[in-house]
Design goal:
Elements lengths: L2 H9 L15 H4 L3 H7 L4 E5 L4 E3 L7 E5 L3 E7 L5 E7 L19 E6 L1 E7 H10 L1 H27 L2 H16 L3 E3 L2 H8 L3 H13 L3 E2 L5 E4 L2 H7 L3 H12 L1
Antiparallel strand pairs: 1-7, 2-6, 3-7, 4-5, 4-6, 8-10, 9-10
Length: 250
């Protein structure tokens, strides 16, 4: 469906009095009032995202935005030699690229699914129209964008100054918060890719966390939390700082 068609469809329901029947897990969508949900409901689709699905390519025009429920989305910076590292992660607290609704229709990163699950997909132009109409929604998205910027800046420092074990522990903690679960599915190879390190380093870290009962393994490729307090002690301070940003902004 074209952007114009989305706009027409959205405009036709702008004055509807919708009853909110959906309790959104996603914090941005949960901030919508009944009228906002009514306006967006006709173009909103709940989708299942698989691990390593590519949502956006670098500098590709973004026409749809994903609002995760229990999945995690990673923004990867990729170098010419193929090396890459995660710049930011998004879960139920946010959206895949909300700046696309603030007239920034592209991004320099490759965006892909880190943890499989479900999300709501909406056309960018429908979100743009809702932002213009709904001042409260506009403010919440602005606060979220600021928190995401802080996360990106902090990640840059974290990647350069903290050990693989600290960073891996921080990533696991933050991801568990984002998916609202006590376990998730990810391979060590993919986790190493996100953190920009060798797989052997991740294997050593996960092995130690498992041996100390901080993590437990239910089946191959699945990580389950064993002792959250000990994992917090292993992680760097960036976990608490980043979490506070999202908790205090909206």
């Amino acid at each position: 469906m074209s952007g114009a068609a989305y706009s027409d469809q959205y405009a036709n329901c702008q004055d509807s009095e919708a009853v909110v029947s959906e309790k959104f897990v996603n914090r941005l969508l949960s901030s919508l009032d009944a009228q906002g949900v009514g306006r967006l409901s006709t173009v909103m689709k709940r989708v299942t995202l698989k691990a390593q699905d590519v949502l956006y390519l670098p500098d590709e025009r973004i026409t749809e935005i994903y609002f995760p429920e229990n999945c995690a989305i990673s923004m990867l910076t990729i170098m010419k030699n193929g090396a890459c590292i995660e710049s930011a992660t998004v879960g139920c607290e946010g959206a895949s690229w909300i700046s696309a609704s603030f007239r920034s229709p592209t991004m320099p990163c490759q965006t892909m699914v880190a943890i499989p699950g479900t999300a709501y997909r909406l056309p960018t132009d429908a979100i743009e129209l809702e932002i213009k109409r709904n001042g409260r929604f506009h403010n919440i998205l602005s606060h979220y964008s600021h928190a995401l910027l802080i996360q990106t800046l902090r990640s840059t420092a974290c990647n350069g100054l903290h050990t693989v074990e600290q960073r891996c522990s921080r990533w696991i903690l933050a991801t568990l918060d984002r998916v609202n679960l006590e376990q998730f599915e990810i391979t060590q190879e993919f986790l190493a890719k996100l953190l920009g390190v060798q797989r052997t380093g991740i294997t050593q870290v996960i092995g130690r966390l498992l041996s100390e009962g901080i993590l437990t393994r239910t089946e191959r490729g699945h990580i389950r939390l064993g002792d959250k307090e000990k994992l917090k002690e292993t992680a760097c301070e960036c976990y608490g700082i980043m979490k506070k940003q999202f908790s205090s902004k909206y």
